[in-house]
Amino acid sequence: METMAINYWAVAVATLLNLVVGGLWYSPMLFAKVWQRSAGITDEQLKAFNPAKVFTITLIVSWVICINLAFFLASPGTDWQWGMTAGFLAGFGWASMIFVVISLFEQRSLAYMLVHGGYITVYFTLAGLVIGAWQ
Asked: Keywords on this record (predicted)?
């Protein structure tokens, strides 16, 4: 059996990257208004959210995502190119597609699906890049 090595520093950085990418993606600089409108979220609702709870749960879930991706990328031949490709394939081909299915049943708009699906794809691609490069 082949020995698998997980770089936990890479997993930690890729985990934190979720907050960085999400902060930029859902900022007024990029897709905040499109997301807010398509999700039906008001400014008042945004002001009322609990950041400690949201960021804590986000970090835990992001760590699960990244540790899982790290296990998929743990083979000795992994480099940044394969990491990025695998991240893209997992983000676009699996995570975004199941998100679209769920969104269709919830009767969400195309804008909603594109904003979130785009974020998922970009995040997984960058997480794969970090984990693959730091193998």
From this structure: Membrane, Transmembrane, Transmembrane helix
CB 17 within 8 A of CB 126: yes
How would you class 119 by CB atoms within 10 Å of its CB: exposed for 0-12, middle for 13-18, buried for 19 or more?
buried
Delimit the domains of the chain by residue range: 8-133
**Residue 39: what pLDDT?**
95
- Let me know: does 111 contact 69? Beta carbons within 8 Å: no
Burial 3-15 (b: 16+ CB within 10 A, else e): eeeebeebbbbbb
Whether 71 and 105 have beta carbons less than 8 Å apart is answered as: no
Q: Are 117 and 96 in contact (CB under 8 A)?
A: yes
CB-based contact 96:44 (threshold 8 Å): no
Q: And the tokens for 79?
A: 């480099």
- Count CB neighbours of 93 within 10 A: 12
Separation CA 104–CA 64 (nearest Å) = 26
What is the SS3 string spanning 45-99? HHHHCCHHHHHHHHHHHHHHHHHHHHHHCCCCCCCHHHHHHHHHHHHHHHHHHHH
pTM of the complete model: 0.94
